[in-house]
Design a protein that fits this description.
With about 325 residues, the protein is mostly beta strands. The protein has no helices and 36 strands. The protein has 2 domains: about 150 residues, no CATH class; about 120 residues, no CATH class.
């Protein structure tokens, strides 16, 4: 998606669930309290594209350029980038011409635009592509792991998924921050670690099956899903036919497949598509914000991006 992080509204894929109370939400797993979701428009629809809010700012596109707004809708960084992503660990990936770099909250490139592709910073490192291979840099731009991988993911829980042998026909494994393989390349596809487990695929994207491994590389859940997603607060989404449900870390189905299109449970609610409109439901499937949007994203920092017609805004 245009240089933003991959949007969570993936057809047939939902993430975790949490408990929503009428007067607010208490996450059963994390013990966090969330403000009630009212659906009140906080920032009027006016943007061609947006990211969610992260560290108090959201990337938005006006015309052909990207900039950043705060939660009042005021521009903090005026639109001037070809592409831009959400802030992560104090820096955001931004593109000038055909090269990516990283900006600070003033909009200044602190790591010059010089890369063909980049990952967001995570655990102090970012994957960057130069000369057709990925390596990793720190926040000063210093190389930490030299470019050598055809494909690479972000670090999570101390490990990052990387490809060797090529994206077509190669294998994926996991390296530590020294660039040493902690789990040898043996998977056809791999995702990030989350809550101690990582999503892996055997057989390829078409016709293959997805399962989960622990940090020793052993299967915690054998590959058996046509598609699945990472664990979050004890639950992960899986695809069954054209609909998605949730499993726990033992592979037991906790929520039966229900929605064809949805986002991820966040701050107590889930963005779902009902017929041709998007709204929000709680864990029990009760509608808390009526379906009325052309598209909706998950809540982040108290606001959710919604599209009405061709323009994006944010609701509370």
């Amino acid at each position: 998606m245009n240089g933003l992080r991959v949007h969570p509204c993936v057809r047939g894929i939902c993430f975790l669930a949490c408990v929503l109370l009428a007067s607010g939400c208490v996450d059963r797993d994390a013990g966090q309290k969330f403000a009630p979701k009212t659906g009140r428009m906080a920032i009027a629809p006016q943007f061609e594209e947006v990211s969610d809010f992260s560290q108090g700012l959201a990337a938005v596109r006006v015309g052909y350029n990207w900039g950043y707004i705060d939660k009042t809708g005021r521009f903090v960084i005026e639109p001037r980038y070809w592409e831009a992503r959400r802030f992560s660990e104090g820096l955001a990936a931004a593109r000038e011409s055909n090269q990516w770099g990283f900006i600070d909250r003033s909009g200044t490139f602190v790591i010059p635009a010089q890369y063909l592709a980049v990952q967001d910073f995570s655990e102090g490192l970012a994957g960057v592509k130069k000369d057709n291979t990925f390596g990793y840099i720190d926040k000063t731009g210093r190389p930490v792991v030299k470019p050598q991988f055809p494909g690479a993911g972000s670090f999570h829980e101390g490990l990052a998924a990387v490809n060797v042998g090529g994206l077509l026909g190669g294998k994926w494994g996991f390296i530590n921050k020294s660039g040493v393989f902690a789990i040898q390349p043996s998977f056809d596809l791999a995702g990030q670690f989350s809550e101690g487990l990582a999503l892996v695929n055997m057989g390829g994207l078409v016709g293959g099956k997805w399962g989960y491994i622990d940090k020793t590389g052993a299967y915690a859940i054998e590959p058996r899903y046509a598609f699945a997603y990472r664990f979050h607060e004890g639950l992960a989404a899986f695809l069954d036919g054209s609909k998605s449900g949730f499993i726990n870390k033992k592979g037991k189905t906790i929520m039966k497949p229900t929605y064809v299109s949805c986002g991820e449970f966040s701050e107590g609610v889930l963005a779902v598509q009902i017929d041709n409109r998007w709204g929000f439901v709680n864990r029990k499937g009760k509608i808390v914000i009526e379906p009325q949007y052309s598209q909706a994203w998950s809540y982040s920092e108290g606001l959710a991006a919604v599209r009405i017609g061709k323009k994006w805004g944010f609701i509370e």
